[in-house]
Amino acid sequence: MLFNKYASYLSSIDHNWYGNSDAKEMIAEFFSNAEYREWLKTVPAPRVKNMSMFEKIVDFIVRIFTGESKNLYEQLKPAFEYVLDEALSSTTVSELIDTSQSTKSSYLKSV
Predict the structure, then answer these.
(1) What whole-number distance in Å separates Cα of residue 111 and Cα of residue 106?
(2) Cβ atoms within 10 Å of 106's Cβ, excluding its own
(3) CA–CA separation, 64 vs 34, rounded Å?
(4) pTM (2 d.p.)
(5) Closest C-alpha among 8, 9, 12 to residue 46
(6) Of 31, 92, 94, which Cα lies nearest the Cα of 57?
(7) Cβ atoms of 26 and 19 closer than 8 Å
(8) How far is CA 20 from CA 23, 24, 65, 68, 69, in A?
(9) What pLDDT does residue 74 have?
(10) DSSP per-residue letters across the chain
């Protein structure tokens, strides 16, 4: 699995992050720990110029939904990054619900 290679690479850089212990923990930390995501933004992706590990993981996940469609990819990637940076950084469940309802309302007004 690709994420096993990522976890191994990240562990070689800094083994103190729990998310670097294996692929499952890396994915769990990626979605639940804002500090881990911020750290990933500082780690260069292997064999890819000008891309952080955060961007590499986002790229991989977004491509699951978009395939090779560049137009759909370019539309979905900023929304996904927003969810990771803003919505998942909320400190309470009610804040997350408020953010979700606000985003839904804005979307419905735009269509």
Answers:
(1) 9
(2) 9
(3) 22
(4) 0.65
(5) 9
(6) 31
(7) yes
(8) 7, 9, 25, 29, 31
(9) 82
(10) -HHHHHHHHHHHH-TTSGGGSSHHHHHHHHHH-HHHHHHHTTSBPTT-TT-BHHHHHHHHHHHHHHTT-HHHHHHHHHHHHHHHHTGGG-SSHHHHHHHHHHHHHHHHHH-
Q: From CA 91, how far away is CA 6, in angstroms rounded?
A: 28
Measured in residues, the chain has a length of: 111
pLDDT band at 95 (very low <50, low <70, confident <90, very high): low
Residue at token pair 């670097």: 20
How distant, in Å, are the alpha carbons of 18, 31, 67, 80, 85 from that of 37? 12, 8, 24, 13, 8
